[in-house]
Design a protein that fits this description.
330 residues; alpha+beta; 9-stranded antiparallel beta sheet; two-stranded antiparallel ribbon; 11 strands
Length: 330
Amino acid sequence: AAPPIVVLLLFLANSSLAKVAPNLEARLTGLVTQGRYDQARSVLAQTSRDPIEKQLLEGRIAKSNGKFGTATRILEDALRARSNDIRIRRELAHTLFISGKFSRAKFHFNRLIATDPDPALRASYRSFLSEIGKKRPVTWNAFFAFEPSTNINRGSSNTTFSTSLGDLEIDDDSQSTSGIGLTYGLSATVNLDFTPRTVTQLTLGYTRTDFTEGTQFSFDRRSISFLHRFSTGKTAWNFSIFGVRERHKDSDDFVSVGTSLQASRFLNARTRVSLAASVEDRDFLESPSRSGEFNIFRFDVEYELTRSFAVSGGLSFEKSKARSESLRFE
């Protein structure tokens, strides 16, 4: 017998779809459930010639037969052709879940929470996410990124300055540059508590950045954080307490502790916006005058090109309240 959560989703899905095509959807679902696949194909052929609807039906039939790999391929093809179709994404998420592809299922359930207007269905998606969290109490993440060559000391990009003593010119060669950098890291996340609307996690992370020219600016970062996430409607709120230790080759090491609050929301199935604010106390071990409170405010927009590739951009505002007034900035 199907687990209660699966039965609940199927019931809610049928109820929701009945608002769009009550007779057709209910009849097709009933025929697939009874194993009368040829009759379901015949009914669809008489009422619709849409190839995407045919793919959706074939995906349902393959899933009903336990052919989860085939169902996944069919439904993914259909979703690529019609990325905003909630029914296709729902079938795909459910197929991935029951076939044990939890990371991919989680991706689609999160998109469904952001786009499905039915609150009852959104609650069922959160139940699936809760089950995934329980089945995968520990997750690992590895990453890398290339850093562009920059004026690493953040000095002025101007080369000529007019002063009361006359014009001063800065030699381009005097500005320290970093060369191309490589950032890479590893993190582990432990789910301490997982319910349909809340998540509590512990994350340990290690990140390192190396530069090809300004090797003295290379550094590594170790971090630990406790995060509590809760959902209100389509908005996710993250509150975290964190600790960081950075070690720099130029002896600019520091440790910090702080808190952050982030709100994120999907505008549609591919676009997410987020606002974040953090307050931390940094202690520079060899430069006490730089120690003090740091405030950061960020606004980010992320657009998903594919399931595994996205582009993002944003704005940030930083303020330093260093002990030495001459080192403060915003």
